[in-house]
Amino acid sequence: MTLLVQKPSGAKLLMRQTWAPADADAAAYIAAVEAADGQALEEKTRKAIDDFVIGCKADGIWSAIKASCILAGARTLTGALVPLVGAAPTNVGPFVSGDYNRKTGLVGDGSTKYLNSNRAGNADPQNSLHLSAYVTENFAANQILVDDNGGSNVARISRGTSSRFFFFSRNSTAAVTTTLASGTGFLGSSRTSATNVNARSGGSPASGTSTSAGQSTNNFWFYSQSGGTPSGSGRLAFYSIGESLDLTLLDARVTQLITTFAAVIP
């Protein structure tokens, strides 16, 4: 925004006013990313983040997000691993700068690299849990996007054979499944009660009956089974963990964020 300012002599000066985030949580996150990057983000990139946080709050889903990273937008991998909410993930392997793309996110190698979210499988109520990820490059067959290695209590999003995806939510025998022509875009699950689980993929909802069996004490890992061998070669641009929420609303906000990044980042 450019302002006209009147000098005492009557002459006018043009002064540039720097755009700033409207939301305090977005502002704090952006400042932390810029400090990690060592330089400022573009104004349109900053605004996309601000709009995302404001939108999540307006939708009533922000408070349910307890751990999250926007794995895109930042200028560096270090900046991308700054948490939007909750603890910072531990970079194991590790991922290196060549694995990161500002528009499309972070790609796994399927064998040595994963993110430990540092969010425990029992940190959220047994009958209220969501997991989500935004995939920009498909995971291979029989690979895991996120997992807490909970045995009979496992919470996981994984790809099976072909384009079938499995959403476990603290029950290893009753997954909600979907089949997609492409495994890219938003994928998420939300346990809403002791017996019901919703899922979302490819812009479409799914649901199933799955009685919660218990909670894991292991942390959630992305690109791997927690405590197991890394097995994710796809690319993620966002993840979140927390209490049950409306997946349709989260899908819309995350999809808009990543779509905007692709359009405004040089």
Can you describe this structure?
The chain has 266 residues and is an alpha+beta fold. The chain has helices at residues 24-37, 43-59, 77-80, 247-264; strands at 2-6, 12-16, 65-70, 90-92, 100-101, 105-107, 114-120, 129-137, 144-147, 155-159, 164-169, 176-179, 185-191, 196-201, 204-209, 219-222, 235-242. Helix content is 20%, strand content 34%. Strands 3, 5, 6, 8, 13, 14, 15 and 17 form an eight-stranded antiparallel β-sheet that branches. The chain has a seven-stranded antiparallel β-sheet with strand order 4-7-16-9-10-11-12, with no helix packed on it. A two-stranded antiparallel sheet has the order 1-2. Helix 1 packs antiparallel against helix 2 and helix 2 packs antiparallel against helix 4. The chain is globular. The two termini are 21 Å apart.
Number of strands: 17
One letter per element, helices H and strands E, the order comes to EEHHEHEEEEEEEEEEEEEEH
Q: Number of helix segments?
A: 4
CATH class: Mainly Beta
Key features of this structure:
Jelly Rolls; single chain; eight-stranded antiparallel beta sheet; 266 residues; alpha+beta; 4 helices; globular
Topology summary:
Layout: E1 2-6, E2 12-16, H1 24-37, H2 43-59, E3 65-70, H3 77-80, E4 90-92, E5 100-101, E6 105-107, E7 114-120, E8 129-137, E9 144-147, E10 155-159, E11 164-169, E12 176-179, E13 185-191, E14 196-201, E15 204-209, E16 219-222, E17 235-242, H4 247-264
Antiparallel strand pairs: 1-2, 3-17, 4-7, 5-6, 6-17, 7-16, 8-13, 8-17, 9-10, 9-16, 10-11, 11-12, 13-14, 14-15
